[in-house]
Amino acid sequence: MNNVLAKRKSAERQERIDRILAAAGELFLEKGYNNTTMRDICQAAQLSTGAVYFYFKGKDAIYTSICEESFHVLMDLFKASLDGVDDPLERLEALNLAYVKFYTDHNERWLLMSTFRTVGLSQVLFERLEKLDFQAIGMASAAVADFLEGKGLVGKYTVQQITLAVWAGTEGLMDLHQRKYFTYMNANLEEMATMQLEVFLRGLGE
Q: What's the pLDDT band for 8 if we cut at 50, 70, 90?
């Protein structure tokens, strides 16, 4: 009996947390982080103020939790895309397309994650998200480092610089897609991401 009650309480707790995160995520996207209040979140989640504060210290903690979940979703996609892939170039291509998939399938998460450096989080919460961000970029950096081995480019450009350039190219395409440029130009995001990477690598002498 105690085990049944414990499972029920755990399920109820998770259901409330999920409800809070879902409600807050929608509000952050609709009203913006700074214009969203804890009262707004409580009302949208249909929970009392006390109940929401029982699980989260404030909206910054809620936002951080959403972003943390999102980074883990992204890194799970990265890891799955690299399964059984050893060639550095193929790893870069796989990571690039995995990032596009994350943007496409989890667009709201991508939008929220993309603002974490500008919303004014406390240093502690900011560093938690920055650590995850660097972990995600680090997976790309490892592929770039292996790809560049023996090409004589390291020294002129650092691995970090080249990784940032690759990352920025894909991010730029996503931003254009978000602003509906692809609709006007009848372009496909996945195809453009593949082309962008190929052009970039040719510029590096591949």
A: confident
Q: Using CA of residue 121, residue 125, residue 127, residue 133, what is the dihedral sign?
A: negative
pLDDT, average across residues 161-181 = 91
CA distance to 82, 103, 111, 196, per residue, from 175 (Å): 25, 10, 10, 14
Q: Are residues 15 and 86 in the same domain?
A: no
Helix (H, G, I), strand (E, B) or coil at 151: coil
- Domain, as residue range, for 153: 64-203
| Six-digit token string for 154 | 């390291």
Q: Give the integer Cα–Cα distance in Å for 146 and 179.
A: 34
What's the pLDDT band for 1 if we cut at 50, 70, 90?
A: low
74 and 52 within one domain = no
Q: Residues 155-190, buried b or exposed e (16+ Cβ, 10 A)? A: eeeebeebbbebbebbeebbeebeeeebeeeeeebe
Identify whether residues 31 and 94 lie together within a single domain: no
Q: Which residue has the higher pLDDT, 15 or 154?
A: 15
* Predicted TM-score of the model (pTM): 0.89
